[in-house]
UniProtKB/TrEMBL annotation:
Superkingdom of this protein's organism: Bacteria
Region annotation Disordered: where it falls in the sequence: 139-164
InterPro entries: Ig_E-set, OxRdtase_Mopterin-bd_dom, OxRdtase_Mopterin-bd_sf
Matching Pfam families: Big_7 (PF17957), Oxidored_molyb (PF00174)
Keyword Transmembrane: yes
Name used for this protein in its record: Molybdopterin-dependent oxidoreductase
Organism: Streptosporangium jomthongense
Amino acid sequence: MSEVFGVLAAALALGTAELTAALAGRPEAGPLLAVGSAFIDLSPAWLKDFAVRAFGTADKPVLLLGLVTVLAVASAAVGTAAPRRPRLAIAALAGLAALAGAAALSRPGAGPVDVLPATVGAAGGTLALLYTHRRPRPGPESRITLGVPRHDRPIQPPAPAPGADRRALLTRGAALLGVAVLSGGAGRVITSARQTSADGRFLALPPPADPARPLPPEVGLNVPGLGPFTTPDNSFYRVDTALIVPRVPHQEWTLRVHGLVDRPIELTFADLLARPLTERDITLTCVSNEVGGPYAGNARWLGVDLAALLREAGVQAGADQILSRSVDGWSASTALESVLDGRDALLAVAMNGRPLPPAHGFPARMIVPGLYGYVSATKWVTDLKLTRFADEQAYWTRRGWAERAPIKTASRIEVPKPFAEVSAGSVTVAGTAWAQHRGVAAVEVRVDGGPWRQADLAASAGPDTWRQWRTTWQASPGQHRLEVRATDATGHTQPAERVPPIPDGATGWHTVLVTVT
Ligand SMILES: Nc1nc2c(c(=O)[nH]1)N[C@H]1C(S)=C(S)[C@@H](COP(=O)(O)O)O[C@H]1N2
Ligand SMILES: [Mo]
């Protein structure tokens, strides 16, 4: 029974701490998010790679669930110790709270208020432990009378009925659970209400001064099972280290351009929108994408010309890196020469015709065609520092990933799906290929290691977007192996050699096994 009370006391501590964080307007300082975020930043690269591979976009819920499980086990132990060693139990609780407080303080942008949630939680948890481990129902002889004894009552109360102890414990348990759930729930409601009001989804943005070329209708092949050419926001992959989506009110947002520049610049969101905006279709890809994987998406971005902004600031000789930072302390190293070579590098404010969704970087993010996201696509960006690769390293570079990472030529089979059963005869094989900023020149497919055959390419929307392809295969019954490879406009063909994503992107041919009946 005591372990249950340990868990309930911890739940109450957590609930009151989360409520405090919400009331303080610092949800990221709540114990779960603070410890979870610190864990993400401290965990070694192999563990992160494993998490992304094993859980994909569910890696964050899995981490939170793991934390809650660890906390439940620890607090059950604290609860078991509590009746005999109350001081030890309270010390253990204080230790957990200190950990949460330290984690909250270690986060970027943390201030002294961020220790409040852990402090309130520790106090709540201690009270809860004392409350449950007070002797359940003191006998009359040990009753401590508080206040004035009431003599109109019988001096000897009736002996407790059998089961009364149990009932008292249950009542206390229910009370703790109630406070835990109510405080935790109230915290969530407050935080989500605040977040919705900081959301800029309904801001009206100025039209582009330099609009994207209209998409030729033939960029999308009408093959069932093949995704659309333009990825809708809600199915666009999301990769970042943020346990909670940073909510940045656009009225408070600023961007600093500094470092090796002649004239440092500070811009507000209104300043950004006052500049001429460029609109482009650009395919974004994550370096963690395995061969054939899902971490690529194509959107129509609207934003400020990043190269023009840097030229205004006057980049000094010697700078070779743009070190961009986000509001949550993440950073990316972007090769300056790539941004200045004439490609459409953007400080984007909109995606697919609307302000950026919070999860994709509202109010502003970087987009640089041809570079993997981790070296170019900083979301919630607030700081651009012109520096040197020799002097400063970014978040992932410090964890073993390459400092420069152009996107490798890639192709994948989306139809048929792996291990699909198809009927013999004409089978459509289709998919996507990308080689951003070079362009896809050809896609070839082969069956069971036979000769490579050219697939038909959909219309191109330019070198910075992916390209759909399809071909027809005369399938005979049995098991078959389909493989695909693309050649980019520089004449480079995807190599057969399989290399893992770390340090600068996977290579190898996507292979799909199918059964023909
Ligand atoms: N602030 C911030 N920006 C970030 C990241 C991050 O972890 N934090 N991840 C980058 C990575 S690795 C990729 S692939 C892209 C993904 O952008 P998306 O989530 O909009 O698809 O964002 C980049 N921008
Ligand atoms: Mo990425």
